[in-house]
Design brief:
globular, Rossmann fold, ADH-like_N, 15-oxoprostaglandin 13-reductase [NAD(P)+] activity, binds NADP nicotinamide-adenine-dinucleotide phosphate, 3 domains, oxidoreductase
Amino acid sequence: MSTSRLLSLRSGTAVLRLFRPTRGGKEALSVGPRVPARRYIIDMSYSSHFMDYKRTAMPSAMKKLVVTQLSPHFREAVRVQTVPVPTPGNEELLIRNRFVGINASDINYSAGRYDPTVKPPFDAGFEGIGEVVGLGLGASSDYTIGDTVAYFRNGAFAEYTIAPAKECIRVPLVKPEFLTLLVSGATAYIALKRLGDLTKGETVLVTAAAGGTGQFAVQFAKQAGCHVIGTCSTNEKAGFLKSIGCDRPINYKEENLGETLRKEYPKGIDVVYESIGGSILDVAVNCLAQKGRLIVIGFISGYQSASGIPAFKGATLPVKLLQNDYGEAMGKMMRMLAKGELACEVDCGDMAEEGRFSGLESVFRAVDYMYAGKNLGKVVVEVAPAAQGNSKL
Ligand SMILES: NC(=O)c1ccc[n+]([C@@H]2O[C@H](COP(=O)([O-])OP(=O)(O)OC[C@H]3O[C@@H](n4cnc5c(N)ncnc54)[C@H](OP(=O)(O)O)[C@@H]3O)[C@@H](O)[C@H]2O)c1
């Protein structure tokens, strides 16, 4: 059903008829009295949902990445599958993914470490941004075809993804920068706000500082008036860190991190935002000031090992962390981004050996690239080019 047909139904005059589909057909829920002009008519007798692919070449099949066996090695765990494009349910949106975000934890997920009760096959990928190309009737009060949305939900590594409308975030444009906020930015915002207790003049150490989440921790700590130290593995990343306000980038490939911290910060570090684990975590713990705070948001150096992280049931750290303050964090960061107060560095692999991460299959290369420590900013894959004829895209 087309959008224009929906609109004409809504502004027409008729009897309000609602039907509940039942096994034996449809059952009238209510038959209202004759209503005056301009009352809505919701006649669901045609279907429980509608879809409209205005100006979008809508294929019947699509590709998606599916975890077919548990492994922390993404290429081993994940296969490309061709499946029918799914149909959105009543309250859902069908989103044509333009960009998807890569997260260090994509391999924890493919290893089954988040929820050991979930067995393969299951869909991979946590976050995407794109345009609405289909929607259920229940979602049509808030969304229409062509709207641009971002979402944080399993199953993003696909050409099309279904997401509940109420979980989607409306974005003004399909820009990969928005993708940096959903997991990476929100984690830094919430962790530092809830746990950092940052005070002006304090010293903050951020590890993997030039990466997806590190770049935000640097900026939020700086905005709180702190002296910020950031670790990274190249001089190019060190230059980037300076450009976003990091007072002391440390390229740990060229400088000994422990020695540098002890020498330059003899009173210790007040707050550490740590995500690497192993020897870097040891250094961070040893360099903490008295009453210092250590915020461990991950330990990427272990993720590719067989033990990786201990399996844990139910709510995961990211989910727990992101649950309460997520709406506030997203709202605040979107406003900052709009005002030009937040740098959201995106790395689409333009400098990668085989070039830009373009097309769903390049998710594999993008994961390798991150695990080789080559990324500067948030790793993002461009799944599909902009649809023609839509000015928002
Ligand atoms: N708890 C949460 O909610 C949450 C949310 C987002 C991220 N995280 C955690 O934050 C960390 C970073 O995640 P991200 O997605 O934002 O990735 P990222 O920082 O964009 O990329 C990973 C970076 O980690 C650094 N690194 C250092 N040692 C590494 C190693 N042995 N293997 C691979 N990379 C290494 C590399 O930078 P250098 O080479 O410059 O050091 C690399 O570029 C991960 O531990 C992740 O689990 C946690």
